[in-house]
Amino acid sequence: FVGALFTTAFLITSIKLSIRSKGRDLIRISRELDGSNVKLNALYDMLKKMNQCTRLQDLLDLATANAAKIMGAKGSSIKLLDESRKRLTFASASGLSQDYVTKEVDLDKSLINRKIIEGSYFASGRIEEEDYYQYPEDIRREGISSIVSFPLRVEKMVIGVFSVYSGKTYYFQDSDIEFFSLMGDLTALAIETLRSQLNKSWFVNRAAHELKSPFSAVHGLLGVMRNEYLGPLNEKQKDTLA
Question: pTM of the full predicted structure?
Answer without folding.
Answer: 0.70
